[in-house]
Amino acid sequence: MTATDPAKAAAPPLDPSIAPPGTRNFRDAGGIPADQWHADQNGETLVPTHCCFCGVQCGMYLRVDRGGKVFGVEPRNHDINRMRLCPKGINAYQQVNHPDRLTAPLMRRSRDEEFRECSWDEALDFTVSEIRRIQGAYGNDAFGLLGGASLFSEKTYLVGKFARVALKTKHVDYNGRLCMVSAAGANKLAFGIDRAGNPFSDILLTNCLLIAGSNVGECFPVMTQYLWGARDRGATLIVVDPRETAIARTADIHVAIKPGTDSAFFNAVLHVVVAEGLTDEAYLAAHATGWDEVKATVAQYPPARSAEICGVPAEQIVQVARVFAGAGKAMAWHARGIEHHSQGVENCLSVINLCVATGHLGKPGAGYGTITGQGNGQGGREHGQKSDLLPGGRSITNPEHRAQICRIWGIEESELPGAGTSMMEMVWQMQRREIRGLIGICNNPFVSLPNYAVVKDGYDTAEFHAQFDFFLSETAANAHVVFPVTTWAEDEGVMANAEARVVKHNKAQEPPAGVRTDTWVICELARRLGAGQHFEFPGSREVFEELRIASAGTVNDYYGITYDRLEETGGIAWPCPSTEHPGTPRLFEDGRTYHPDGKVHLQVVEWHPPMDPYTDEFPLSLTTGRTVAHFLSGNQTRRLGALVEQTPRPWVEVHPSHGFRNGDPVRVVTRRGSEVFPALVTEAIRPDTVFIPYHWPVPTAANALTIDALDPRSKIPEYKVCAARIEAAERVDEVPAPPTAPGHEAYPEAQASRTDRLPPTSPQGRGTAERS
User: Fold this and answer.
1) What digits encode the pLDDT tens for the residues 328-380?
2) Which CDD domains match (predicted)?
């Protein structure tokens, strides 16, 4: 690559409220952004798009050669990421033309048979015949559909419509059920809208930033720039996490609470705020309901009581209360660490109560946000693939909402099924033979769902299972039919990032021969099921036009968002009701929420213990999470050599007090089973807690050990805490290679380091402790 003449390429203007100090001086001196570079390879093009991984949605250019093939990546000077990409983003392009790609449908009529490649007609006909057989014998609801939050919004819209109009089943849900639904439930209860209240850029304007249950440095690396920018301006950083993560290590206050005690902690913080007269009474009187009930409840959580529950000093609770409430502008952001609990909704509500009681809402530098995990974790739950929602965030139990969607879809209201069940509940229903057939799209439950033995039994009990994917995942390897579909770079569509900013992904290359888009497969199945008139969509653009109409007038209004506007602006935050509307980056600026009365509906929160009880046999807390090199179930990242080399296998983090040395085989035992991992001995974790990253399958799967208890409201699993014990073992369990299609072998360059016995070093721990 060769730079253009700096004199001829003026740096684009920077918003001074966003640019860190000194950045303008550097840029003016000749720092040239990616969009001012040109290719020195004849015929090469740079296709502007966004990363396929987390909810930050970094802008990037995919490099495409003269033959039309993606072969590299360039960071893009999009205002989300400003030239930054994380290790996953840098390597994402390698998926597109990877040797492990599925390029023909796979089929078998029994799980006792081996897969064979077949034609599209044979795979589609067999799938349709099995749908008809099962539904004819057991009813429409005997067949289910599970979608994914890494799909474009157009495809998530189709998943929900296909389930209800073509399959005519109530059983549809998605893997965002394992990610964001606790935050969604809390947001809807408190605000009447489900999204973050502030854009990332507001973080740069705050005086105090509280991060709860989010390992930002590894799970959302590029978001770290906003944290550092706030610190550069003098903001105080508070991190609430049982582990001293990379971000917690730099915090002014790190609250290392015991897993499963978040709401007890935040109730105590609010107790201090009330006791010391730090509440914003004028704001509460004008803009909130339920304050008297919340105040009476937190009175029962003095710091001494919660300190004992949480395992932190009472003085630290007081310190957090004074710093957060006393800041002129304060923000709180959280992620899975407080959401993956049987009290996940309550945990989120306890943070909301704190923000509202102190008046930190709806202002530049003051507010509340939830960090979505998957690329379309926000958009993936907005338009109908969630079991209780219709497009636009409409409730499937609301007669008016049902009628509106039926008019758009051209069906009778009596034809629209009711609410279904959640993803984990659907697995239990498969075990009970209530659901006998299933289609999965963009998910890998064999790695991502808790209590693997139950999940495997549920899928094995199903009479028929089809899966869409571009690699053969562990779940797809157990199916009857596997449909080979496109990667994100071979189609176009929109995603909504953690700010609720809708961004446009562009197609960079044609898919391999034999591969189809998810949209084509869904529409073709619908046609063969006799519902083709409702699915006449040549591609994503036509689906998006119907989605715009279906969302018009709702809280989740996309009507004013068009592909052209997204290309022009780089992204628009919904709600956006008209093509003249600029979008809504910051909510609640006028003090009004999206409830009919315009007020925040504060909710009473009571702490209760986790569902898996501690005993002398199981005295420790097992918690799980991500590592920087991998993503979700690892079906994509465990095939990319640089990422496998960086983090080839899972480990167990243990405190030095347990007497292990780095690399020792440690058996982790829960009520679901046991597995052996190499020890990462570090003082950066509580002595009563152990941590395992969850990106790998059995026999090294963290989720073979986790409990399938659910939050009663959000139905999210309690991944972040279960009772465990650890003991010495002889040897660590082997890491399996990812599944491959018939005739293929695991790509050796990406698998060479899987047999490493030692755990990783930085950035996971701040040092190890060795026995003398």
Assistant:
1) 999 999 999 999 999 999 999 999 999 999 999 999 999 999 999 898 999 99
2) MopB_CT_Fdh-Nap-like
